[in-house]
Amino acid sequence: MVAVTGRDNPRTYRAAGVDLDLAADAVARIADRARRTFGQPDGGGDAMSPAAGIGHFGGLFHLPGDPVRTLVASADGVGTKLKLAFVLGGEAHAGIGRDLVNHCVNDILALGARPLFFLDYVAMGTLDAGTLDAVVGGMIDACQANGLVLLGGETAEMPGMYAPGEYDLAGFIVGEVPGGRAIDGSAIEAGDVLVGLPSEGLHTNGYSLARQIIGLDGDREHDRAILAAPLPGGDGLSLGAALMAPHRSYAPEIRSLLDRGWIRGMAHVTGGGLPGNVPRMLPPGLNATFESHRWDAGPLCDYLVTAGELAPGEAARTFNMGIGFVVAVPAGVESDILAALPTARRIGRVVSTDDRTQTAIGGDPQW
Amino acid sequence: MVAVTGRDNPRTYRAAGVDLDLAADAVARIADRARRTFGQPDGGGDAMSPAAGIGHFGGLFHLPGDPVRTLVASADGVGTKLKLAFVLGGEAHAGIGRDLVNHCVNDILALGARPLFFLDYVAMGTLDAGTLDAVVGGMIDACQANGLVLLGGETAEMPGMYAPGEYDLAGFIVGEVPGGRAIDGSAIEAGDVLVGLPSEGLHTNGYSLARQIIGLDGDREHDRAILAAPLPGGDGLSLGAALMAPHRSYAPEIRSLLDRGWIRGMAHVTGGGLPGNVPRMLPPGLNATFESHRWDAGPLCDYLVTAGELAPGEAARTFNMGIGFVVAVPAGVESDILAALPTARRIGRVVSTDDRTQTAIGGDPQW
Questions:
Q1: Which of A151, A176, A255 to probe by mutation at the B interface, max B CB count within 10 Å?
Q2: Complex ipTM
């Protein structure tokens, strides 16, 4: 992949090798075909009907034979943040393990689910016990912190599939929504306020473009030197440390809001950024406007946007721009929430729209 | 990895890049650490206690707040059978998708579970919509055949992580054991008979060694020519077709036996072969002897053992040797089972042993 910059060839996530439009098409096609498996009788003759399928942050599954209990499941990876862990080694691998678990926890949290258990898949070319122990150790730490059982996993040794020292991993989480009531955004109304919780760095998205912007080239010594340099505006934090900042779990803060009944919908800001994820919680006929002057993207996003000469819309679709989790709440509780969670910020509001293709998202001049 | 043959350097799975002993050590270490997450309170205050954790074919999870209902979950991949699909293309990708689902179905079937839902993780360097559609199409076909809902998944585009045209994938399955009663092998007694159900080819294990034996070198044209050649003794079947034979689901046959209450324990023959997997169902103090004259390994295993000059124990730990699924039954029902399932074979029996390190498995001269 050749890095291209300048007015004629603006730097984009697509040019860095990640085509979100193609991915969205593929996911839509898969979701359509996967519906064939919904509601079919299982071997025991019960009808199964997922309340929500592929496309939301998790899949809802009504337990057969029970009128209430509903499971929520999600699968995820950590993307090419892995490539930075390969360069940095050591504690970075444990961080990757924690990132994976927290990413999964946040995905089902976005439907109001409490986590139950987690399974992992780790694939390496040649089994490296030290790296594996670090990754799994990180997963176990995060499972404990989230009250989650690490129930099993698969460790695959696949010669010729991964470069020496490299690996991929995937996580799978199952949780349950209390009382069978998922918070799926259907209660959201025009006029509701969008409250954002801050991210720490990029979490697990946008790394293919970030790696290109900072000039990593795959040579370990060269890449280590780049990552050891200070992040401009980062108070002495190295670029590597800023990029490896943890994908944190929002469960403690969000549960406190859920307990008060304030939340009408939630979005976990992952691939696609705010404009790609906030609409996933919105009912038909509604859209979101973002008030980007109300919060800071943070020094890492600021640096990447500047150094990469990114168009605002491209940056917003690639990076989380400082916001990791979004809740939609009635306007009347905005001040209560901001008082309860000092780091939270109002980031926008829900608006009515007759045509979802003419949205303030993505095309908004603020991006 | 250099292929080595001859008496001084016997060809082994380890030399082909897969170290089962190292993997077993790693899994044991992970299981030990993962127990820290068992029984911890979740956010709601319920105690959770997996009945069986990492190490069995699936993890058992008692649903909090219900005295009976028990879920079973498992994570799996398909190993380097993928490398053959990369060479053969087309329908081979759909076969990989079906293999993944069936592998997962068999894993939880080994505990007596009915499948509920499935999620996938597919990672590519550059998103190839045609390949992705084929893989997912295969998964959907197999989900439908097994009465299983494809509830969600993650498609990851990871530039620089996978070679062009290559991908990895992982599957996650959740099922439930009827009445909360898992068949975990605890009822197995010395004197019980081991009945094997035939595999079709290698299923999804041993491909790193098989690829080395048949001389694949990564050059697509060269490799296609090798795979197009007829399998010796294969009635005109090509080597490629024999190697891509599906990892089949044993659910239909096994359910008919479960309904009659005949089964005391089950083993899915995956990595580690018969000697690596049959002991996973056995209670302490028991072991297995195999009567390998009672069944045929089939033309593919026979060819690989001969062409690879494999020691019998090495072959048995690497390939399934013609048996894909094993059930332990009381001796009194052996003839009934063999009459009900014409392709089934008695393959050995359960014996008592005072010292499990001195076993008939692996060290048995029959291997």
A1: A151
A2: 0.90
